[in-house]
C-alpha cells in the first residue's frame, strides 16, 4: 500500500473537512482508497503555520479555537507562511484551499506554482488557477513529473472532468451543457414557486447558498469560469473568459418564469460549449427556457448538472451537489486518489 | 501502444456496431483509447464461424447479406462453432453478444466460462452471466489472471458500474435507486400524456423499444436482474433474483398517473437497493410516485438513470441511454479500454 504526506494550505471549512475525513476514517479510508494519508503541514490565516514531518495530531488542531495559534507548538509559527511551507514541507501532495480572485487567480496561482516547482503534486478546488492559468500550471506539473488535479473546480465533489476523461473515454464529445451554479438554480426554482428575484436571492443568502455579494452567482461570472475549465479540459478549446459570452438571470422576471411554466418549460442558467465540424469551439452563459424533455430541465434546487452530447452514446448527464464543505473535501480526496493511481502506475513502469 | 486481438461471438446488431466502430475509426480510435484493435474471429448463427489470425477484412464481412456464409473463406465454416472458436481463437479478448435466457443465462454463461478458462478476457453486455453466475465467473477470471467486464449489463453504454467503482472511489454508497428499463419509463410517460397502458405498450413496440412479448419490461423482471447486478457489484450484497421483491407497472392505471400529476408527482418503475447500518441489503422493484425534487423524477422517455446516495457527497445521479445498438457497442468498447488499462498496469508491475 502506498503512502502520501499532505500539506493543507488554508484551514477553512474545506481543508478542515478533509482533515476530519483523514482523522476519523483512518484504516477504513486506507482500505477504501488503497493508500495511507498523513498531514505533515498546515497553514492558516488565523492559526499560522505548522510543519511536523512525523505527522500532525489532527485531533488537536481540529479542536483549536480562533484565539489559539500554532506558535509555540513544535514546528509552529504564528504567521501563515504559505509559500515557505509549500516549498519546504516534507509533503508530496499540497492541497491548495485558500482563496482566489477572479481576475488573476491569486494567491492560489502562486501557491500552486510554488508547489509544482518544488516537485509536489497539487490538488485544488479553486477555479482561479485552473481557469486563468491552467495551461501554464499543467505544463509546469508535467515538467516536474508531478500531478496538478482540480476535479472540484467545476462541480465540487460531483465528478465531471474525470468522468469525461476516463469513464467516457473513447467517445467524441461534441457539446456540453451545464447547470453550474447552485445559487442561481435555487433562485429560479423559488421564482417558479412565486418569489421575486430579490426575495429568492435573499432566501439563498439566508440558507448560505449565496455570498453576501451574489453578483458572481446571479450574473453568471461564476459559471463563466467553469465553462472555460470545461471547454479547455474536455474539448481542448484553449479559450479564456473573454471568449465566453455571458448573460445572467437578473433580466428574468416572474412573468417570464410563469410564461415558461405555462408552456411546460423551466428557465435555467445554462453554460454551453459546442464544437462544430471544423473543430472551433463556441461557449456561452445564458438563461434558457428548457422543455421537460431536456436533460437539465429536471435539475432542481441547488443541484448542479452537466450533460455531455457524444457520438456513440447520445447524451449522458451527471448531477449532484455543486458546493458544500464535505462535498468539496471529497473532490480533494478524489484528486489524491488520482494522484496516487498515477504515481503507482509510473512506479510500475519505472521498475 | 498496446494491441488486442478480438473475437466477436455473435454478429448481430451490437457486435456489428462494434465492428463498424473498429473499422471506420481505425487510427483515430487508437489515438483516443491508447491501443489498437483487430478482429481475428467471428461466429454467427447465420454466417457460421471465421478465424483469421492475421485479421479479418471487416469491410467484407460487414457487407455480407443473410444468404451468404463464412464457408469457403480461409478459416471459414458454415456452422457457428461458438465454443470451438472461443477456445481456439488467437484473440486475447472475447466479446460475448449472443443471447441469454433469464433462467440460467445460457448459452452466454458457457461462452464466458470457456473464454476465461482458455485464458482470454471477456466483455459482455448480457445480463444473464453477470446476474446469474457473476461470482463464479469473476472468480474464474481471477484464477486465470484475465478480466471479466460487463459495464453494459445494466445501462448499456451509460457508465454505472465503473462510475461507482472508480469515479466515486472513496465514497460509501448506502443506497441506489434506478430507472433501469427504458420501455416501462416510456410507457409511463405516454400514460402521463393520456394514453392507456395497452396503447402505450403498443406504441413502445412500434418504436422498437419493447419486445414482441413486453412482459419482462412491464412486469419488472428485466429491472430485477439489473438490481441484482448493482447490489452485488456495488454493495457486495451476494443476492439473487429471489431476494429482490418485484412489482411491475401493469397495475398502474391512467387514474393513478393523473392523480400523481395533480400532486406534482410522476410514477416511475424504480429498482431500489439499500444497505442498513448492520450491513444487510434489501432490494426491490416497484412503481413509486416521485415528487419533483427526486433526482429520478425528471428522467423522461426511454432514458435510464441511477442515483447513488453517498456519505460525503449526498446523491449523485447519472442518466443516459439504456439501450441501442451503437450505445451498447460503446459499452463493449469501454470494457476493452478497461481490460487494456488493467493489463498495461499488470505489465508495469511485472516488469
TrEMBL record, chains A, B:
Catalytic residues (positions): 226 (proton donor)
Domain Aspartate/homoserine dehydrogenase NAD-binding: 10-151
Occurrences of domain Homoserine dehydrogenase catalytic (ranges): 159-337
Classification of source organism: Bacteria, Bacillati, Actinomycetota, Actinomycetes, Micrococcales
Membership in a protein family: Belongs to the homoserine dehydrogenase family.
Record GO terms (molecular function): homoserine dehydrogenase activity; NADP binding
Residues at which NADPH binds: 127
GO biological process, one term: methionine biosynthetic process
Name of the protein this chain belongs to: Homoserine dehydrogenase
Tree of life domain: Bacteria
